[in-house]
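The pair is quoted verbatim underneath.

:::
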Amino acid sequence: MIRILIFLLMIILFAGSITYFASLDSRVAGEAFGYKFDGPSGLIGGALFAAFLIVIYITHKIKDIMALPAKIRAHDKEVRRNRGIAALTRGLEAVAVGDAADAAHHAKVAQRHLDDLALTRLLGAQAAHLSGDEAAARGAYTAMLGAPETEFLGLKGLYLQAMAKGDLAAARGHAERAFGLRSNARWAFDSVIELGLERGAWGEARDAIARGRRNNLIAADKADRATAALLTADAYAAHLSDDNKAALADVEAALKLAPSFAPAAVLAARLYGEAGKVGKAAKIIELAFTAQAHPAYIQIYDKLYTDENVERRVEHLRKLATKNPSCREAKLLQARADNLMSEWTSAIKALEPLLTDAPTALEYSLMASAVAGLGGEDEARIWLERAAAAPRDPRPGAEGEFHFTREGWARLVRDYMDFARLAPPPLEDIAAGVSAEEIRLLTAPKAPVEPSVAAPIQGENEEIAQQYPPSQPAPPADEPALQPSHDGDEEITDDEDVERIAAEARKVS
């Protein structure tokens, strides 16, 4: 529609121009280049206007003719580019399906037709990798480092090659360089963290986590836990080097991020306790115990008050138990306090629910102490035997100390960062504990044995008199002795029966 309108306007303009020039009745006379002319002004004006239009048209055509070679070259370039893109597409498809020969063929075609070295080099490197030519692939990846637009891709390819060869030093260098280029690259971030943990570079891992947090590569809570664990690892290293000032600064920073992180709380309490700041050390343990109980807190907390009398120690232990009364460790604290106060029955009562539910050596040891106080060392022997055979608490630091190797710290950082735990769950469950009935039998005090009042019996019937008590008449010497009944429904009639059942329970256990 617009073209028709333009065409009509041109016709109107042309007709108007002719009419205008024809209406002119004047004449124009002049001389130019030795020629004289004289004619109607309309005719001369129309001729000049027509000549102007002809010049414009001829100029336009000449311009088109001069641009023709460039158009031909552009057309050829477009054809080559289309062929290269098609070859690149088919080459990437071949890489996806693992066809090394087809990928290499299309990579050569793409390199011949495309000027974009980034894509063609990447395809060539992947084709070489598929065909097993690692040297060619490494050369292609290395060539990609020379251009800013391909440097990151080249670094990733070199990193994967180094990891496949087990060259962790080279892999670390490539990952760190890539992370410097693209701090939002997930693979580079994960690699820097993992390789830093592998070689114990806790500070470098912390810096990487801080950068990853700024780029939303890691959640804030995970970043805080990881930073706290890494600071604690540095603190233990400083403590081993007798740099307690640096160790204390690191654990304090760690506890600000994760107040319930047991290794940090234990080391901080130990350092403050050695410095004479018992109150501050106890406060750290109390806060950590309230957030998440751990058996190491019991050991370190009790050590803080070893110089005080028993009553004060017990008071502190019971105070700690009230900070988290529903946890298992609170009952252990109660039993420990009761044993210190010689309140054996109360200690046994506190330990009963723990012994029925996957007990460890600690619960059996505390029960042995309570039973020994109540009934003597002989009564406690069976509990000591069970303590020796029972599994230890599988949690790290359950004995009150955290001593990890470099690999141990690396695993701890990973587990605490990802799952907020100190170690993976054990592969094997702790065996079932002791039943409540058996606990009551094994902890029941022995009945006192009354001395016999019968007169000594002399002669050939002395053996029969010793076998039967005075309350039971012995059979005549010429009659066979009655055998005791072994019926399964035998009733418990006196204290000797209770003692016999308890003895049988000990043998079974």
Remarks:
- DSSP finds 23 helices and two strands in the chain.
- Residues 342-394+429-443+495-509 form one domain.
